[in-house]
Amino acid sequence: MAIQDQNRLMKLCFVTVGATASFHLLLQAILDDRFLAALHEANYTHLLVQYGKDSQALFEELLSKYPPGSPSRHSIEIDGFDFNHAGLDREMRLAQASLDEGRNGGLIISHAGSGSILGALRLGVPLVVVPNITLKDNHQVELARELQKQGYVIASGHQEVSVAVGRAETLRARMLAWPPVNGASQKRHRTLEQVMSDELGFLD
Amino acid sequence: MGLTQWLLRDLLWLCAIGCVVGVSAFTIFLYALYTSQNTNIPKWRSKHTPAHLLVVLGSGGHTAEMFSMLRRMKLDPSRYAYRTYVVSSGDNFSATKAVEFETQYLNHVQKATATDRKPAESYTIVTVPRARRVHQSFLTAPFSTLRSFWACLLVLRGQNADQKRLPSSMVSSYPDAILTNGPATAVCIILAARLLRLYNFIQGLIPFKSLGGEDLAPAHYQLRTIFIESWARVTTLSLSGKILLPFADRFLVQWPGLEGKRAWKGMRKTEYVGMLVD
């Protein structure tokens, strides 16, 4: 691949655990020798982690095991923050390719929150979805599975997240357009505008 | 001895009457829901009548999805000329997103259509107390739910402290349509809307009333409720969705696996409308 010669370019992996719940299993899985090695293998230079309000201590503790320059760090630049109340659009965009700003296309790894899934799909950045299995009402697993079936994302358990880095490169090669183009089968549905118009009794 | 027997007989009678009244009230309630869900609104509103849209916002994901849908449908600010956004207390994210949507998207659209009304006059953001906080005890929850329900009633009647007078161009003093995708507050708002409609309908049956504030629209043409199940729901309805299935006028789902669900036999089925978010 051509990227091999462009080691100067930044390639960022952004990990988000969401605002509402903590997701320690995912943090442990990414601040891990295997995961960092997988990132290095795929030419990543940066890892940015949104770790959640009550997980700063855990993040720093895990990070201290991989001091900069140590072989287990695999020369990955790592940074983290708790949450951004203005939304994560800016951070997500760092994973989007922009040759002007010296970036190759990166990767987003997300807890399965719909906001972050939509954000990543809109940007056209490969997305790995890791449902938070510690949550009780877990409908997010279904969403992740369905979107993987349709070829939009990679669904992964937190243990296999280092394998997913490689799978993301395959996904990058065949990214589907977002939002899905409404095919012939979808034409007969009423649109939201039509439904609202029906209910308000607007004349056509 | 005679006294206890009398008391017992009276009690039995009371119970019997109570049961009959209860059962008939319940039957009437079910029948009202049934007819309401199976009646379509006639086309009574001329195309250029401005409408008042109330949008219920919720925690992060719900709000992001809602604005994604409103952008994708290209919400027309000349048709939905007044917008009220309901947020739960402490939810700054939703309030910020509402302002962002109004100032960046709608203001931009309005400029393009050369309307020079100031955007600040055409929307409000109102805050209602939460029905149940995440770790709140189930003992106090009924009280806070009631408080939240009461706040929702006030919002629908335009009596929340944050609300200003509606523009005079509005046909009704209530919101014309309520749009939500399922945060807990949505349950309160939709039930409150249905209660108001029932109240106005019963009031409409009584002759010689008219205590001012006459609305042009008949009771069941107002406060139309549209529930959109979250895009994150692929095979099961959310709790809000399950509760509101018999109450919402329209129940839209974004995945085929949820199509055709209904509260019980004879009630309106959920409609699959494809993906509404972008």
TrEMBL record, chain A:
It is found in: Endoplasmic reticulum. Its main location: endoplasmic reticulum. Its EC number is 2.4.1.141. The keyword Ribonucleoprotein does not apply. It holds the Pfam family Glyco_tran_28_C. GO terms for cellular component: endoplasmic reticulum. The chain crosses the membrane at residues 12-31. It catalyses: an N-acetyl-alpha-D-glucosaminyl-diphospho-di-trans,poly-cis-dolichol + UDP-N-acetyl-alpha-D-glucosamine = an N,N'-diacetylchitobiosyl-diphospho-di-trans,poly-cis-dolichol + UDP + H(+). It comes from the Eukaryota. Keywords: Endoplasmic reticulum, Glycosyltransferase, Membrane, Transferase, Transmembrane, Transmembrane helix. It is an enzyme of class 2 (transferase). InterPro entries: Alg13-like (IPR039042), Glyco_trans_28_C (IPR007235). GO terms for molecular function: N-acetylglucosaminyldiphosphodolichol N-acetylglucosaminyltransferase activity. GO terms for biological process: dolichol-linked oligosaccharide biosynthetic process. Gene3D superfamilies: Glycogen Phosphorylase B. Residues 13-160 form the Glycosyl transferase family 28 C-terminal domain. Involved in protein N-glycosylation. Essential for the second step of the dolichol-linked oligosaccharide pathway. Belongs to the glycosyltransferase 28 family. Heterodimer with ALG14 to form a functional enzyme. This is UDP-N-acetylglucosamine transferase subunit ALG13.
TrEMBL record, chain B:
It comes from Aspergillus bertholletiae. The gene is ALG14. It is a single-pass membrane protein. This is UDP-N-acetylglucosamine transferase subunit ALG14. One of its GO terms (biological process) is dolichol-linked oligosaccharide biosynthetic process. Belongs to the ALG14 family. The lineage of its organism: Eukaryota, Fungi, Dikarya, Ascomycota, Pezizomycotina. Keywords: Endoplasmic reticulum, Membrane, Transferase, Transmembrane, Transmembrane helix. It is found in: Endoplasmic reticulum membrane; Nucleus membrane. InterPro entries: Oligosacch_biosynth_Alg14 (IPR013969). Heterodimer with ALG13 to form a functional enzyme. Involved in protein N-glycosylation. Essential for the second step of the dolichol-linked oligosaccharide pathway. Anchors the catalytic subunit ALG13 to the ER. It holds the Pfam family Alg14. One of its GO terms (cellular component) is nuclear membrane. The chain crosses the membrane at residues 12-33. One of its GO terms (molecular function) is N-acetylglucosaminyldiphosphodolichol N-acetylglucosaminyltransferase activity.
